[in-house]
Amino acid sequence: MKNKHSKWLAMPFTVWATIFIIIPLFMILYYGFVNGEGTFTWENILAIGEPEHLKALGISIVLSLIATVICLVLAYPLAMILSRLGINQNSFIVLIFILPMWMNFLLRTLAWQTLLEKTGVINSILSFLHLPALNIINTPYAIVLGMVYNFLPFMVLPIYNAIIKLDKDVINAARDLGANGAQTFTKVIFPLTLPGVISGITMVFIPALTTFVISNLLGGGKILLIGNVIEQEFTQASNWNLGSGLSTVMMLFIVISMILSSIFDKDGEGGMF
Amino acid sequence: MPNKLIDLVNITKSYGDHVVLDDLNLYIRENEFLTLLGPSGCGKTTTLRLIGGFEQPDVGQIMLDGKDITNLPPNKRQLNTVFQKYALFTHMTIAENIAFGLKLKDKSKAYIDDKIKYALKLVNLDGYENRKPDSLSGGQQQRIAIARAIVNEPKILLLDEPLGALDLKLRQDMQYELIRLKNELGITFIYVTHDQEEALTMSDTIVVMNQGYIQQIGTPEDIYNEPENAFVADFIGESNIIDAVMLEDRLVSFLDTKWQCVDEGFGNNTPVDVVIRPEDVVLCKPEEGTITGEVTHVIFKGVHYEMEVMAGGYEWLVHSTVMHPVGEKVGISVDPFNIQIMHKPESEDEEVAYIEE
């Protein structure tokens, strides 16, 4: 498919990517490896080893992992149900499912803040029903809830894609050879959709790991994730060098995750795009 | 006569408003190579999937060895299927694919290893144990699919157009391969295809289907030489199908000419269809023919010439090793034995109606 025209068609994006992705990336790398005076240093990178940064990174990893697992448990059955529906029902259910995604990410998270507040909607209903109040706002639970709510679609779509690509006769073949429903799932369906699962895990885990908006709004600033630390270095401490150094470390995490997922998903089958 | 191994009783199956099978009755004997043959949408694949257990009939019963298996799931049926697009497990090696059914049955490792060796030898792919399905050609993958099915020692092997995705040469090789396998294994094969040549080559019995009805059941020779209706005649090989009137026993009139034939019992002055195979049409000198005409097309086909002859207002299809050039006046004669008389369908629906044996 390589011809002269395709090169020109890629031009607008190349310009965009250069200005808004590649140049900023190099700027972050530059700031990350120099101190305030502009001389080379490892300090900003090694700052990840400081106890408060390690703690933030640890909490981020734990909460993101929990959110990823919950997403997987919710998404796989949902993707299977979606894949079994006929086309007409399918489009309606898909619509219900993606409708919240059209809403702005900040608004969705703000809505959860309002719902979960001590005097919020959920607690008003609970107190009306004389039930004990739900106090999860400003706790890790609320952050995980926000992560799951916001990132669930990124888990469902790759798994859904992997499932609908399965040849029905491969499933029939497993049944034909004597496998019952559960055996067919564990020995054939799940292994064959694993690339989609890996892709989904990557697409939930990485944004969850680096989020700061969800923890700001639902964690009440009490729980610092690594994203919050980096944000504060840029906005409050105005220490761009330290912020960039920590960002570079996070980028390393992302690159590692992507390499891992590409090893499992050699053919790019499970990808969303 | 061996027993009925599979017996389909009054099977009806529809998808929505579309009736795929209408009151189908069919039995299959032990150790038979039976082919379901018909155009796409005739219900042949549905019939196979009903036997395999991937679909349930709306009405009717499926008996295996005298036991009702209509509501048994596929994993509880003592038969195995070879799918059109192989349906191998791409995340497993060849050996793991073949072992799949045996492991589920908790067979010993030694038994499974022996079986894998035996099955790979049977399909001429020894030494492929550790390859992945993706690294094999289409023909090889289909052999593995067959090996995977037969290690389970099914009573019946169901084959759903297994050669459909292969090229012509490979398809012909695999046809001989399948006949050999069938003879070595001594199990019943139920084979679905739309390729009449495949059906004629391999089958003991052919079931010709159209629009959910069985048109004719018989040996390949029966089906080819004595088609029971115009559909079968047309579907199996090429033929000249001509409107005719049966004047009396052994005398039929078509294209304003009287012809001797060997059929009796159609009554007098009964409208019928006449089928004449292209290779049975004899071209001769104009004065020697029953009817005369002019050659309009000639195509060289290798073994024979295919010619079209306009005679009596009908374009005759003729196969002959002797070439007659376009424009030549020729006579046409047909051996009475080669004129096949068929009842006319009474209505459009009747054309596809179930034919009593």
Keywords summarizing the entry:
heterodimer, A: 273 residues, mainly alpha, MetI-like fold, 13 helices, globular, disordered C terminus, B: alpha+beta, Rossmann fold, OB fold (Dihydrolipoamide Acetyltransferase, E2P), 2 domains, 6-stranded mixed sheet, 5-stranded antiparallel sheet, 20 strands, elongated
Task: Write a short abstract of this structure.
The complex is a heterodimer of chains A (273) and B (357). By secondary structure, chain A is an all-alpha fold.
Q: Which SSEs are present, and which pair or pack?
A:
The complex is a heterodimer of chains A (273) and B (357).
Chain A: H1 4-9, H2 11-32, H3 43-46, H4 51-84, H5 87-102, H6 105-116, H7 121-128, H8 140-165, H9 168-176, H10 181-210, H11 213-219, H12 226-235, H13 240-264
Chain B: E1 4-15, E2 18-29, E3 33-37, H1 44-52, E4 59-64, E5 67-68, E6 79-82, H2 94-104, H3 109-122, H4 138-150, E7 156-160, H5 168-185, E8 188-193, H6 196-202, E9 205-210, E10 213-218, H7 220-225, H8 230-235, E11 240-248, E12 251-254, E13 257-260, E14 270-276, E15 281-284, E16 291-300, E17 305-311, E18 314-320, E19 329-334, E20 340-343
Parallel strand pairs in B: 3-8, 3-9, 6-7, 7-8
Antiparallel strand pairs in B: 1-2, 1-4, 4-5, 9-10, 11-12, 11-14, 12-13, 14-20, 15-19, 16-17, 16-19, 17-18
